[in-house]
Amino acid sequence: MTLGNKKKMKMNCFTCCVAKEEAVHKRSLRKNIQEHKNTKTQSNLSFRNDSSRRRYIAEEIAKLGKGNISAEIFTFQELKLATQNFDNDRLLGEGGFGRVYKGHIESKNLDVAVKQLDRNGFQGTREFLVEVLILSLLHHPNLVNLVGYCSDGDQRILVYEYMPNGSLEDHLLELDPEKNPLDWDTRMKIAEGAAKGLEYLHETANPPVIYRDFKASNILLDENFNPKLSDFGLAKLGPTGDKSHVSTRVMGTYGYCAPEYASTGQLTAKSDVYSFGVVFLEMITGRRVIDTSKPSAEQNLVQWAQPLFKDKKKFHLMVDPMLKGNYPKKGLYQALAIAAMCLQQEASVRPLISDVVTALAYLSGNKKKEEEEAAEDTSKSPAPLQSNANNTETVESNEANVDTAKD
Predict the structure, then answer these.
(1) Among 115, 285, 325, 326, fewest CB within 10 Å belongs to which?
(2) Given 2.20.25.530, 1.10.240.10, 2.60.40.2660, 1.10.510.10, which CATH number is that of 166-371?
(3) Residue 213 falls in the annotated catalytic set
(4) Catalytic: which of 87, 152, 213, 407?
(5) 309-360 residue pLDDT tens
(6) Global pTM?
(7) Annotated binding site
(8) Enzyme class, one word (predicted)?
(9) Alpha-carbon distance 191 to 219, whole Å?
């Protein structure tokens, strides 16, 4: 099959069953976010002092959570103790949001990851509120668990469950020489779990949530390499009713943003699907989406891969050399087909994330036993993935803002 031919790339849909979540979570999120939409524009707020900022945060969390916020409230002193005064030896990572430290809560005998947000500017406060709200009201095995938060003074700190294997980026793109690279099966398992996290946000959460910052560094791994999505500060509520998209300022990480979102600011769930395709391609190739250390023709991963997608004889050139040839040939073809579908320039022909999840279930081996028992014909293979090309999304000219906060 020529991957560059759109007609040949149309595939049969898998049926999927989206797990039912507690109705209270759906109702709470829908009602509370709707109230948040009707409040005054946050960017117009100003704080005279730290106490007014702290009071605002506490009031917003209480108001939006409506008593459903289960996360614990920590004092700054408690978190200083947990991280040994934010000791650099406990530093797990650092980014534009701030720093993450490993901590230990003595009262719970619990290891945690403590994310101390950058205190400069209002943007950090907004992201703080969004993350507390989303992770308190939405729960899934592939979303990181929020243990608690702190808003003492001008501090904005989030406390998560500790993920002992760090991020996917640590094992894929910044591998320590002393560590073994991820094998093929583990990569497919991680891809499936991360896709399930997106599926929950897109198709179970009500209203749907667009993650908007899907990348390897935001996929955390537990002791068994089960993935969990983290860092929801840029998440947006998806379009509802007759709206086809959300209009917002373009944010995220360069290289991972879908082309239509980067050029117009029009955000849909298909934007996350594109970002998933980028990360999945990173997992297959072991290459960063943008790598200026490579020759100019290879610096942009997606651009480098596009012509290779069209030539089956060159598929082997796209595999991470760290795998040393240890991968199933058929599995590689199927994985590249999924990646190519997710990376379609036109959003409407990308698959739904639920179809991606079903396809990846076969690649990860989770459906293998089930198929072997059910199939009478041993030569029968699972139906391939299909994009919903006929369900063309209508892009409206007017901007549809989900909330009043300008981000």
Answers:
(1) 325
(2) 1.10.510.10
(3) yes
(4) 213
(5) 999 999 999 999 999 999 999 999 999 999 999 999 999 999 999 999 999 9
(6) 0.75
(7) 115
(8) transferase
(9) 10
